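Posting for a labmate who doesn't have an account.
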Amino acid sequence: MSQRLLHEFQAGTKPNGLAWDSKRKHLLVADVSDEKARLLDSSNGHVLSTRKLEGRPRWCAYDAVGDRFLINIREPATVGMLKADTLEQTASIPVKTPGPHGLAIDEMGHAYVACDGKELVVLDLTGRSEQRGIPIAGAPDVVWYNTKRQVVYCAAGDPGVIEVIDIRSNKIVERLETEAGAHTFAFDQLKQRMFTLLPKSCSAGVYEEAS
């Protein structure tokens, strides 16, 4: 793998959230400067559609089952639903806990919204309503859903942990100590490995789920 730069596309002045539509090969880019979502054609970088959002966007995700994008809005605390092909907004789900940030979707029609108010909120996407909230250690950032184990990983830079939340019992079943300021990570579904950036030690931590 050469890891060379293939394309560079213009997508607003301060892009934040990204979501990939694997069906159409389109990329959603949420920009915090003008509070807009832009839909890009990955083959040429053309902006196919633009949508003004309700407020400042944070994480976003593509829901393959519903063929739509979900975008967390910090204030008013909501999760917006946009059609994947046109970006037409079809719904806005209120979130009671302040500051929706991290976002993950499972295959059963649920969205997991990690909020600044120290709670992981579970949304029913079919009924477009909030189901429950699960207390977490601190103001969160990135979340990932593990399809195989049905757990959600939720990172908080303060106090520097990644919590493992069992969505069947709604309980934290494990807490990984990372380091202060560590809030960005990625999860490999195939290899069942987690990679987290550790800014204070200028390193990366690698964790693997036991078989």
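Reply:
Got it, the structure tokens are right above this. The two ends are 29 Å apart (CA to CA).
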